[in-house]
Structures are given as structure tokens and as C-alpha cells.
Write a structure and sequence with these properties.
The protein is mainly alpha-helical and 952 residues long. The chain is 60% helix and 6% strand. The protein contains 43 helices and 14 strands. The strands form 5 sheets. The protein has a 5-stranded parallel beta sheet, sandwiched between helices. Strand 13 and strand 14 form a beta hairpin. Helix 19 runs parallel beside helix 21, helix 26 runs parallel beside helix 29 and helix 40 runs antiparallel to helix 41. The termini are far apart.
């Protein structure tokens, strides 16, 4: 069992399914036992806690009844009675000797926080703190918040949460996220204005983001509040920071270039760059902003180290590009990919999906990407382009023409051959001079071989006895890094002299000579052949079958794809470990990957074994099952984890869909798109959703009619959000007709209905949403009921009750996206009712949730709503701060509509201050941006809104 107390009380079974605990007193009993952390609670204490004012007549028997009810839900063995009282058994030594431990999210939260504090690396700390905060579904022990027995624990947990929020912000600040934090922390400071640690972190972020005046203003606000509310002064840390800001001390500057930054997704180097320092420096010199060279392509044969060199050079250049350095991996894209497919991958990497999804009709992704980053100074590394030379050339040409400060760094086995390209060949590592034995150790190939040999065979060192043999090995392998890494592990069983002799014998044999290949490529092929021959049959099976995982895989996926009747899944971990030891498989975190050359070799061996069809079928089936399983988590407390898993598997899921279509497995194609549709919507990948759904539906027969009907309904809802509503609106009838599952059909009625209302078809949309509400209630689907209630709340007078009930149901489900939608509906209802204070509070709550989910268009919407409320209240300074934050986030995320609205708001705030010159400047910018981005009508509508009179 897993217990949730960081929000409404929740219980989940071992499979993650919700367990319903009926009746308020039974839930209160469980909460009481959880408050005591599995310790005993006397019966008299429980009676006083559960019935504080009027205990029942036969209180002992009544308590026993509640205990029995709880045991029926959890299992009799979990609620035990001891001499000291009742207790919830969280750790049970089973009869089979295995210890069964039930978990509590509050304990998981504290453990994650402690793990984060133990790390020195800011990126690791930030991720762990973020994971801890993601466990919170609402206020702790929300069901029993008014009960005396819970208040102390609630206060303790809330203080722990705020401490982690502050530490998380500090970790993010340490890795350079000052611009985002300057925008995000403002709402939190408003909620907790006297927390000095939070305040000082916000001040630092403001200062580093170039907002020194706002940072100083924040300190003045803190000083005023402390004096008025507590009769106190700011502490020494806040005061010292204030003085440092006034003096503009250098210690407040952005972290050094070498420190990790959020403005990049480059992987942390696992090992030192060897033998390439001079080449990396040459690349760095070519990647100077403002220079003539803006496109550099690293070319060379597979296994020569192009990616490693490119990543190292890009990391060195990260401080030169204010808008970041980004790695876009293209190996997983099919050779039939278009320029728009590559642009979509870049948009996803840059975190612009949410913004792209807000565009009304986005068919030209290359053009949209160019407009979105037109003013940015960034470096994009496109890795493994050799199978996509033509579409990459189209994209590169468009970006270089439209984005003056953009630089592109590519790795490919052949150049693009377009104007402006500088080709940088990557040769093998330097070889030892056969005429001068004293220089052997200085050769790059020898240095790499010795490092890898020492890792494989601890204690190995280069000395006078083995230097000549090591040099012979490196020369025989032509200094190719992958070949050297593959052979270094052989020193576990062979001496350097024996290894050199084996290589001489191996490459002298005629069966390793492959006609038509250049000499160095024959060397790598021969090395791969030799490595293959040294594997067992089972190791070979795992290696060749892993090829189908285009973007690597976790252990469970490797087992699903590689295991069959003759090779049990339980053996895969050991076999995979051996392949990692032999450098044939690379482990990165929890994922296992094949290097480019090894993958190409494995594909040949897979075809040779006549296993392509059966292994690809296993891969497609596994991907469909994985997508369906994770899709179920996207509407509950594990939403964040489900999103992370599907993010990591995106390339493999695309490959699975391609295979399902080409192999005429239409049933799996439809299953794959239906399972991913909600994920695509949450991530804003509407273009991908539309294309994938159309592809699956065009795959022909074989799919279940009900599944095809669901896919058509998903497509209808997606198209309503990506095309002009009038053109995409259904011509009549119910687009969900034929969907067999009543829960899914009700949800799809809501999804299509909300798309209709968003496109202006209010009558048709409302009828569908009402049908979805009725269907959800009939099917007892609480999530579907919540979604429909929240949508309907905006279409009827007195919709507060519907929004309140929908919000409560989303909280119960643990769905943070749903809570955000419900909070927005409640805030708008409060605005309509004239309750400005409640509306502001709800918009602030929605702002925090949107920031946590990374829904940046929602962040901008909340900031603009809060700015409008401040304007209506005559608070021009506060409105200006909110609109500036909205403008900053909009510019960061290329959200042109948000920029226009923020500029209009800043103009209105300036008018309220009586500063007509500034007002005119902002309003003219809004007009200019609207014409440049194609949103002139929206800008004119915003400009036509009533303006507040200037302050006298």
C-alpha cells in the first residue's frame, strides 16, 4: 500500500490503483494513525480525537466498528491492536522472510529532500527537490485540516515544504535560472512576504536578470512589512544583500561560464575529453558570436568521436550564447523525415511546444521556428545528420537566413554542401611515432587506450615492458576511438603483447577484408567482427535485438524486446551488463544505448538472423503497452512521472508507430496514437498529434472499429485546436459515436466539446460537454465528471458550484493539470462576481501550478489576469511588475500573443501613472509585434479595451 497525506487523504494499492476509504470517520481514523507514523495510539485518545465534542454512547464499540471498516479496506493485518493502543503497520516481516514496507508520501518527500541536500551538484539537487515537491497534491491532511490531532503535523509538513521550495529555488539559481526565477518567485513572495530566505533568493534572481530596481524595491517592501507587522527589521543576510546590490558587487553576478546552466540540455561528460583538446579549441574559435562562421559540420567515419568532440566544444561555448546551447539528437528520425519533422524536434528541445500549440494553424513548422527564435543568440547542435542530409540542409538554410545570431553545429558522415558551411573533418586520434619510442605516451590514441584499459583492468599502467605492444595495438586500430574502447576490455584476460598478436592474426585473415570500404572503415568493421565472435550466442541475441530501440531503452524495455522462449527475461540484466563491460552498449543513467556504428552493425546481424520481423513486432507491442500504461497515470498523482517516462520514450514511440504502419499492423498503430493523444495534448505537441492520428487512421483495416472511432474523435478534438474552428467543426452528429468504452467516450465528448467552444461553436460544444458529464456520471468516472463540470462552469450564471465541485474532484484524483483548470474557472467566476480579492488569490494559486507544470502560456495568462486586477484597483506599480514578468516569460517562450498583451498592459499601467510617453512606446510596440507575428486583430482588440484614466 501507498498512503498519501500531502493533499487529501489517499490510498493506492501495489499497482498504483486508488483504494477508496469510505466514510469520513474512517478516513479520520486512518489519518490519525498516519499522523503517529505507525506508532501506537491509545483507544481513549482516538475517541477524543474523532469525536472531540460529543463522543457516542458506546464509544469503545463505535471505535471498534470504525477499525473493522478500515481493516476491510486495508487488510486486517495492517491495523493491529497492542497493549499500548492501535497502530498502522507500515513495515511487516512476512512469513516468507521478505519485508513488506508500505510507503507514505510525506516520508518519501522528506527522503528526497535529504538526498537532494547530500548532493553538491546544483542540477541534481534541483531535480531531486522538484521530485519532492511534485508529491504534493494540495494542503497536507486536507480532509482533517480542522482537527486538533492533525494541526501540529500539518504545520510541520507545511514548514518543511516551504523550506524545500526555498532550497529548490536556490539550487536553480546556482545553475543559472535567474530569468525564470525572477518571474516565478514573485507570486510565492506575495503569499509569504515575511520569509526572508525566499525574499533574498528572489532579490538575487531579480538582480541577475537585470532588474536591480525591482530587487531594491522588494527589500523596501520587506522592511516596511516587518516594521508594520512585527516591529522588526530585516535580518543581517537580507540587509547585507541589499547593500551588495547597491554597490553592484561582483559576487552577485551570474555563475561562472563553467557552471551548469539551465540554458542547455547538453549531457554531463562521463569521462574526460582525451586527445581532442586542440580540436575542441579550434571549434570554439569558429563558434564565436558575431563571426563569419555560423554553420560548422563535423565529418568523419562512424566511431571516430564526432559527437563527443561536438558536445565538448558546445559546452565550452555555452557562455557565449545568452539563449543557450541545445543538443538535438536526430538518429531516431526515419530517413523519410521532412524539414518540418526536424523543426518539430528542435521546437520540443527548446521547450516551445506549449507556445506552438497556441497558434491557430501551424503547418509550416520551419517558418514558425525561425520566427520564434528570430531575436535569439543560441547554438543548436544537430547530431547524426548523415541519413537526413537534404531536410537538414533545408532547415539549416532557413534558420541561418532568418536568425542572424543563431549558430549551428552538426555531426554527419557527409557535409550538407550549402553556402556558408564550414566542414571540419574529425580524424582518428594521433598515433605513436614508430621511430621514437619515448613519445608513445604522448599520442592521443595511446592515452585513450591506457585510460580505458585501466578502467577495465585495475592496476594496468603503461610501462617500458608493454609500451611497444600498446603502440602496436593503437596503430593496428588506426587510432579509431570506438575500436580502441572495444579492445581495451580484452586486457582483463590478455596481456598487451598477446592482444597485439591476436590483432595481427585477426586482420591478416582474408575473411575480415570487406571490399569497397576505405581502410579505416575496414579496421572498425574488423574490430566489430572480432568483438562479435567473442560473444556468446545469448549476448549476440541481446546486442542485435537492442537495435530496434532507436533511442536506447530502460532495463524493462530491454527485457521485453530481447527475451523470447529460448532466452528468459531474467537473464537479460546479466547479459546487458556484460555488453556494457565490453563497451558495446553504453549506459547513461537508467538507459542503455548503442553507439551509431554498433547499431548499424547490429542491424546487419539482426537481418542476418532473420529476426527483424519478430523483434520489431515485440518492440511495437511493448511500446503500445507502455504508452497505455503511462497514459493511465496522466490523470492522477503520478502525472509528473508519467510525463517524464513518455518524454524519455518519445523517439521509440515514434519509431514504433512508423513500424506499425509500414508492417501493416494497423491495430497497434491505432492503439499507439490513442494512448498518446492525451500526452500530446498536455505537452502541447498538437502538430505531432494531428499527423500521427491521421497516419494511423490511414493505415487501413485490422484495427478494432471502436478503437478507430476513438482515434477519429481524438483527431477531431485536436484539429479544432490546430485549425480555424469554422473549417474544422464537425458537420453534425456526435463525433464520438462508435467508441465502446463509456468512460473514454464521455471524456472524448468533453474533449471535442471544449475544442468546439474554443473555436466559437458554443452551442454544439456545450451540448457535447453536457453529454460527456452525463456519461461520466453514469460510468462513475470522477475525472471525466470534474473536467466537464469545470468547462460548464464558464457557460452558465452561478457556475461557481460546478467549478468548486470539479476542483474538489480533481484534487481527489491528484491531477495537477485539472486543478489548474478548475482554479482558473473559479478565478474567472470570482471576477464576474466582482470578488477581486478572491480572484487574485485564485490566479496566484493557478500561477504556481502552471509554473510547476511548465505550462508557460498559462503562466502568462495568470500574470496578465493579475496585472489587469491590479490596474482595476489603481495599483499601477504592481500592475507594471506583473506585466513585465508576463513580457519576460512570453519573450523567453516565443509567445507572441503574450508579448502583445503584456505590452498593452504596460501601456495602460503607464497611462494610469500619467506617463503618456512610456504608454505610447509600449502600445506602439504592441502594434508592431502584432503585424510582425500575424496577430494584428488580437492586438487591436486589446488596444480597444477601456483604458484607466491617468492618475491626477
Amino acid at each position: 500500500m501507498r498512503y498519501g497525506v500531502l493533499g487529501p487523504l489517499a490510498v493506492w494499492d501495489a499497482e498504483g490503483r486508488p483504494v477508496r476509504v469510505p466514510e469520513a470517520k474512517v478516513r479520520a481514523l486512518l489519518a490519525n494513525l498516519l499522523v503517529h507514523g505507525g506508532g501506537p495510539v491509545p483507544a481513549d485518545r482516538l475517541i477524543d480525537d474523532l469525536w472531540p465534542s460529543c463522543p457516542p454512547g458506546d464509544s469503545a464499540n463505535t471505535l471498534q466498528t470504525k477499525v473493522s471498516q478500515l481493516r476491510r479496506v486495508l487488510g486486517r493485518e495492517r491495523v493491529v491492536r497492542e497493549p499500548a493502543g492501535y497502530r498502522l503497520l507500515l513495515a511487516d516481516d512476512g512469513r516468507d522472510g521478505n519485508s513488506v514496507v508500505d510507503s507514505v508520501d510525506a516520508l518519501e518527500f522528506q527522503e528526497l529532500a535529504e538526498r537532494a541536500r547530500a548532493h553538491r551538484e546544483p542540477s541534481v539537487r534541483a531535480e531531486l527537490f522538484a521530485g519532492a515537491l511534485a508529491l504534493w497534491r494540495g494542503p497536507a491532511y486536507a480532509d482533517v485540516a480542522e482537527s486538533l490531532f492533525a494541526r501540529g503535523e500539518i504545520t510541520r509538513l507545511e514548514e518543511l515544504r516551504l523550506n524545500v521550495v526555498e532550497e529548490h529555488a536556490e539550487a536553480r539559481l546556482s545553475r543559472g535560472e535567474h530569468t525564470a526565477l525572477a518571474a516565478e518567485l514573485g507570486a510565492l513572495v506575495d503569499l509569504h512576504p515575511l520569509r526572508e530566505r525566499l525574499r533574498t533568493t528572489h532579490m538575487r534572481a531579480l538582480y541577475r536578470a537585470g532588474r536591480q530596481g525591482d530587487a531594491l524595491g522588494s527589500f523596501q517592501d520587506l522592511r516596511r512589512r516587518l516594521a508594520e507587522e512585527l516591529g522588526a527589521s530585516p535580518g543581517p543576510e537580507a540587509s547585507a544583500l541589499h547593500e551588495a546590490i547597491l554597490r553592484q558587487e561582483t559576487r552577485l553576478a551570474t555563475p561562472a561560464v563553467g557552471s551548469p546552466s539551465s540554458r542547455t540540455n547538453l549531457p554531463a561528460p562521463l569521462t574526460e575529453l582525451i586527445g581532442r583538446r586542440e580540436a575542441a579549441d579550434q571549434l570554439l574559435a569558429r563558434l564565436a558570436p558575431g563571426g563569419d562562421t555560423r554553420l560548422v559540420t563535423l565529418t568523419g567515419l562512424g566511431g571516430v568521436g564526432k559527437t563527443r568532440l561536438a558536445v565538448a566544444a558546445a559546452r565550452d561555448a555555452s557562455g557565449r550564447f545568452a539563449d543557450g546551447v541545445w543538443l538535438v539528437e536526430l538518429a531516431g528520425l526515419a530517413a523519410t523525415a521532412t524539414p518540418d519533422d526536424i523543426a518539430e524536434r528542435v521546437i520540443t528541445t527548446l521547450g516551445l511546444c506549449d507556445t506552438a500549440a497556441s497558434e491557430p494553424d501551424l503547418d509550416d513548422l520551419v517558418g514558425w521556428l525561425c520566427r520564434a527564435v528570430a531575436d535569439r543568440r543560441l547554438l543548436v547542435l544537430l547530431d547524426n545528420c548523415e541519413h537526413l542530409v537534404e531536410p537538414v540542409a533545408v532547415l539549416a538554410g532557413a534558420v541561418l537566413s532568418a536568425v542572424p545570431a543563431a549558430h549551428l553545429l552538426l555531426t554527419s558522415q557527409e557535409p550538407l554542401d550549402i553556402p556558408g558551411e564550414v566542414v571540419h573533418p574529425v580524424p582518428p586520434l594521433t598515433l605513436p611515432d614508430p621511430t621514437d619510442p619515448r613519445t608513445i605516451a604522448q599520442a592521443g590514441a595511446v592515452e585513450l587506450f591506457v585510460r580505458r584499459a585501466a578502467a577495465a583492468a585495475p592496476g594496468f599502467v603503461l610501462d617500458a615492458d608493454n609500451a611497444e605492444a600498446v603502440a602496436a595495438v593503437c596503430r593496428r586500430l588506426d587510432g579509431i576511438p570506438l575500436a580502441l574502447e572495444l579492445v581495451a576490455s580484452r586486457l582483463r584476460t590478455l596481456s598487451p603483447h598477446e592482444l597485439a598478436a591476436r590483432l595481427d592474426d585477426r586482420f591478416a585473415r582474408p575473411d575480415v577484408r570487406v571490399r569497397g570500404l576505405p581502410e579505416r572503415q575496414r579496421t572498425l568493421r574488423g574490430m566489430l567482427d572480432w568483438s562479435w565472435l567473442l560473444l556468446t550466442e545469448d549476448e549476440r541475441a541481446v546486442l542485435r535485438r537492442l537495435v530496434v530501440c532507436a533511442d536506447g531503452c530502460v532495463m524493462a524495455s530491454a527485457q521485453a524486446v530481447c527475451a523470447d522462449a529460448g532466452l528468459g527475461a531474467g537473464r537479460i540484466p546479466d547479459l546487458l551488463s556484460r555488453l556494457v563491460d565490453r563497451s558495446l552498449v553504453v549506459r547513461e543513467g537508467d538507459r542503455f544505448r548503442l553507439l551509431e556504428s554498433v547499431a548499424a552493425y547490429g542491424a546487419e546481424r539482426l537481418a542476418e538472423a532473420a529476426e527483424e520481423t519478430v523483434v520489431q513486432a515485440r518492440f511495437v507491442r511493448h511500446c503500445a503497452e507502455l504508452a497505455e500504461r503511462e497514459s493511465e497515470r496522466l490523470r492522477g498523482p503520478d502525472q509528473r512521472r508519467g510525463l517524464e517516462v513518455l518524454d524519455a520514450e518519445t523517439v521509440n514511440l515514434r519509431r514504433a508507430l512508423d513500424l506499425a504502419v509500414t508492417r501493416e499492423a494497423a491495430a497497434y498503430a491505432v492503439r499507439l496514437v490513442n494512448a498518446q493523444a492525451w500526452y500530446w495534448f498536455l505537452r502541447g505537441r498538437l502538430t505531432e498529434a494531428r499527423r500521427s492520428l491521421r497516419t494511423a487512421l490511414a493505415a487501413g483495416g485490422g484495427a478494432d472499429p471502436a478503437a478507430r472511432a476513438a482515434a477519429r474523435a481524438w483527431l477531431a478534438g485536436i484539429e479544432l485546436r490546430t485549425a480555424e474552428g469554422a473549417e474544422a467543426a464537425p458537420t453534425g452528429g456526435d463525433p464520438t459515436e462508435g467508441v465502446g468504452d463509456p468512460v473514454l467516450r464521455a471524456r472524448l465528448q468533453w474533449f471535442v466539446g471544449t475544442g468546439l467552444t474554443g473555436g466559437g461553436h458554443h452551442g454544439d460544444g456545450r451540448r457535447l460537454v453536457e453529454a460527456g458529464l452525463a456519461g461520466a456520471r453514469a460510468a462513475r468516472d470522477r475525472w471525466g465528471e470534474a473536467a466537464a463540470l469545470v468547462e460548464l462552469a464558464g457557460h452558465a450564471a452561478g457556475g461557481d458550484a460546478s467549478a468548486e465541485l470539479g476542483a474538489a474532484l480533481f484534487v481527489e484524483a491528484g491531477d495537477r493539470w485539472g486543478r489548474l483548470r478548475a482554479t482558473r474557472a473559479l478565478a474567472l467566476a470570482a471576477e464576474r462576481g466582482g470578488d477581486r480579492e478572491r480572484a487574485e488569490r485564485l490566479h496566484r494559486e493557478g500561477l504556481l501550478m502552471a509554473e510547476e507544470l511548465g505550462l508557460w502560456t498559462e503562466v502568462v495568462e495568470a500574470l496578465i489576469r493579475l496585472g489587469g486586477s491590479a490596474l482595476a484597483g489603481g495599483r499601477a506599480e504592481r500592475a507594471t511588475e506583473l506585466y513585465e514578468r508576463a513580457l519576460s516569460v512570453s519573450a523567453e517562450r516565443a509567445h507572441s500573443v503574450g508579448e502583445i498583451r503584456a505590452e498593452v498592459g504596460l501601456g495602460q499601467a503607464a497611462r494610469l501613472r500619467g506617463d503618456l510617453v512610456t504608454a505610447g512606446r509600449h502600445l506602439n510596440r504592441a502594434r508592431a509585434k502584432s503585424h510582425a507575428s500575424g496577430h494584428a486583430a488580437r492586438a487591436e482588440a486589446a488596444l480597444a479595451e477601456p483604458h484607466p484614466p491617468p492618475r491626477a
